[in-house]
Specification:
The complex is a heterodimer of chains A (282) and B (354).
Chain A lengths: L1 H31 L4 H5 L11 H10 L11 H32 L5 H10 L9 H10 L6 H5 L6 H12 L3 H10 L3 H12 L1 H16 L3 H6 L8 H8 L9 H32 L3
Helix pairs in contact in A: 1-14, 3-14, 4-8, 4-11, 11-14, 13-14
Chain B lengths: L3 E10 L2 E11 L4 E5 L6 H9 L6 E6 L2 E2 L10 E4 L11 H11 L4 H14 L15 H14 L4 E5 L7 H18 L2 E6 L2 H7 L2 E6 L2 E6 L1 H6 L4 H6 L6 E7 L5 E4 L3 E4 L11 E6 L4 E17 L3 E7 L5 E7 L9 E6 L5 E4 L5 E2 L1
Parallel strand pairs in B: 3-8, 3-9, 6-7, 7-8
Antiparallel strand pairs in B: 1-2, 1-4, 4-5, 9-10, 11-12, 11-14, 12-13, 14-19, 15-16, 15-18, 16-17, 19-20
The chains are: A mainly alpha (282), B alpha+beta (354).
InterPro entries (chain A): MetI-like, MetI-like_sf
Keywords (chain A): Cell inner membrane, Cell membrane, Membrane, Transmembrane, Transmembrane helix, Transport
Subunit structure (chain A): The complex is composed of two ATP-binding proteins (UgpC), two transmembrane proteins (UgpA and UgpE) and a solute-binding protein (UgpB).
């Protein structure tokens, strides 16, 4: 009796400790966003909420000048980040579904060659090919555009591979039944393959949206005007280097706001994801 | 409704010839069963009719129109697959309606056709369900419903009952038969189950290694098997086959062990010819003189009994007797074939000798 209680207790303690370690910085951020910059600047941030929350968030959102500098308004940065993250997530899904569909369902010359070409790109991280990519995007005149932000990040070998593996599990008879029913390749894709891939799409969307939202290096390179600033690069630019003092209250409010869309996507899509799993139609 | 003609159809995969020239004309409304062991090419032939496999040589015509180069959808056929191949994300109604929807048939007519098919197949209660919520037999019926609503020129069945348990299989077999009688649609049905073939077929095409061994009605195939292969494949338990020789006067067959079985009619031209002698177990009966066997095993099936006997020279001889067993293992028994129960096959080619 006693031992089982101890055994029950240990994982809980570990778990709670883990949660505290992970959650504490976020809690500090949340608290920090409700105090004025003086309090934070002195290094004496209390662990309870202050009274400045509404003002800080309004200031960050509207982008009125901080005490020490001018910032791009959070609403602009959020919009830019949202456009970029959605374009990347949806673009990646669309492109990889189409390429996986081609590789999985069609027989054409050099099919496996194409498959391996896609596969090989997995081995080159974005950073390695960033200079040629920048050159191409610059030559196309896409600097400081949404297209320039999103398109270079859209191709995805990982998603293509995942979809290909899933498509290979769709029985041949289903394809043949559809052929006899009169469905061409496009109809089969829309009417059968896509509905069956719903849960995969939902799961990938969550991962890819967060991947897109958190992009740092590429947006930093490809945007130069404040109008095109994304929130992740924006936050880092708010933090001055060296001796300059920072508007920590606004930075923290901005950080909290920056967390909301990914959290919303996870929470909303998780429900969807679980629903898809429970239906278990495949 | 249409005829299906298969003219010298061949199929090769590289150097391997899977179908070596099949010829058959299927009448309007006929139920043809393609029967054979795994790998004999029966499914390939069916898929060639469906348009799912290319045709290497020869012609296939449906309703008088050569369809070699038509897509499956343009061949006016419907197919029922072994694993049902229902769209898992669609309701039963949508599964049946899908083909019609693609063909641009008006909604009201789709509704009417699906309702009618659902009524025939007793699926009315399940129209809003997903395939995953149905039993195997119900899924099979949905797959048939999908074929029926199309009102095709021909039905193609690819081992549709193999995934069902024995009881359901019997039940569905009867249902398919009733359905085909009622709709009168030309049907090609692939199976390796001889009972399905015997009960469903108007004619059976027995295939082996890509060749048509025999084409005939179920009773023809049973009573006059064209080759040793057919003789062994049709009938359960399988036919006994013994080595023999026609005697010098052409009046009887001599089998090792000294048995002399008179032929129904003399065949002097075959005198001295070595033959394979086939006798069905159900055509053997206890007799005063004949094969003397030692019983090794007795299988009581209830309605009848299968006796596995050993001949003096070591060959096994099966005897099927009506009713419950009257003999026991290690008993000795003398059995003889009934009149006219002998099948003679060429010792080399295995073809039937008339």
């Amino acid at each position: 009796m006693k031992t089982t209680r101890v055994i029950d207790l240990v994982p809980h303690i570990v778990l709670i400790a883990g949660v505290l370690i992970f959650a504490y910085p976020i809690y500090v951020t949340l608290i920090g966003s409700t105090w004025d910059s003086g309090t934070i600047g002195r290094g004496g941030l209390p662990l309870w909420p202050g009274g400045q929350g509404a003002a800080n968030y309004a200031q960050a959102w509207a982008g009125e000048a901080g005490d020490r500098a001018m910032y791009t308004p959070v609403r602009t940065m959020m919009l830019n980040s949202l456009v970029m993250a959605l374009s990347i997530a949806l673009g990646k899904i669309a492109i990889s579904i189409l390429s996986a569909y081609a590789v999985a369902f069609f027989r054409f010359p050099l099919r496996m060659a194409f498959f391996w070409l896609i596969f090989i790109t997995l081995m080159l991280p974005v950073e390695v090919r960033i200079i040629p990519t920048y050159k191409v995007v610059a030559d196309l005149g896409l600097i400081n555009t949404y297209a320039g932000l999103a398109i270079p990040l859209i191709a995805s070998a990982t998603a293509t591979l995942l979809f290909r593996q899933f498509f290979l599990t769709i029985p041949d008879e289903l394809l043949e039944a559809a052929k006899i029913d009169g469905a061409g390749p496009v109809r089969f894709l829309i009417d059968v393959v896509l509905p069956l891939s719903r849960t995969n799409i939902a799961a990938l969307f969550v991962i890819l949206f967060i991947y897109g939202w958190n992009q740092y290096l590429w947006p930093l390179l490809v945007t130069s005007s404040g109008d095109m600033e994304t929130i992740v690069t924006g936050i880092t630019k708010m933090i001055g280097t060296g001796e300059s003092a920072n508007d920590w209250h606004i930075i923290m409010a901005t950080t909290v706001l920056a967390m909301l869309p990914p959290v919303a996507v996870v929470v909303l899509m998780q429900r969807w994801f679980v629903k898809g799993l429970v239906d278990s139609e495949k | 409704m249409a005829t299906v003609e298969i003219r010298n159809v061949r199929k090769s995969y590289g150097p391997v010839e899977a179908i070596k020239g099949i010829d058959i004309a299927i009448q309007d409304g006929e139920f043809l069963v393609l029967l054979g062991p795994s790998g004999c090419g029966k499914s390939t032939l069916l898929r060639m009719v469906a348009g799912l496999e290319g045709i290497t040589g020869g012609e296939i015509a449906i309703g008088g129109r050569v369809v070699n180069h038509l897509d499956p959808k343009d061949r006016d056929i419907a197919m029922v697959f072994q694993n049902y191949a229902l769209y898992p994300h669609m309701t039963v109604f949508d599964n049946m309606a899908y083909g019609l929807k693609i063909r641009g048939i008006p909604k009201a007519e789709i509704r009417a056709r699906v309702d009618k098919a659902a009524e025939i197949l007793e699926l009315g209660r399940f129209l809003d369900r997903r395939p995953s919520q149905l039993s195997g037999g119900q899924r099979q019926r949905v797959a048939m419903g999908r074929a029926i609503v199309r009102e095709p020129a021909a039905f193609l069945f690819d081992e549709p009952l193999s995934n069902l348990d024995a009881k359901l299989r019997t039940q569905m077999r009867v249902e398919i038969k009733r359905l085909q009688d009622r709709l009168g649609i030309t049907s090609l049905y692939v199976t390796h189950d001889q009972v399905e073939a015997m009960t469903l077929a108007d004619r059976i095409l027995v295939m082996n290694h890509g060749v048509a061994e025999q084409i005939g009605t179920p009773l023809e195939v049973y009573q006059r098997p064209a080759s040793l292969f057919v003789a062994g494949f049709i009938g359960s338990p399988p036919m006994n086959v013994l080595d023999g020789r026609i005697d010098d006067r052409g009046e009887a067959v001599l089998v090792p062990g000294g048995q002399r079985l008179p032929l129904p009619r003399p065949r002097p031209t075959d005198a001295g010819r070595p033959v394979k002698l086939g006798i069905r177990p159900e055509h053997m009966a206890v007799a005063a003189a004949g094969f003397s066997i030692e019983i090794e095993l007795v299988e009581a099936l209830g309605a009848d009994t299968v006796v596995y006997g050993r001949l003096p020279d070591g060959e096994t001889l099966l005897v099927r007797m009506a009713g419950i067993p009257t003999v026991r293992e290690r008993d000795r028994l003398t059995v003889a074939p009934q009149d006219g129960a002998l099948h003679l096959f060429d010792a080399v080619t295995g073809r039937r000798i008339e």
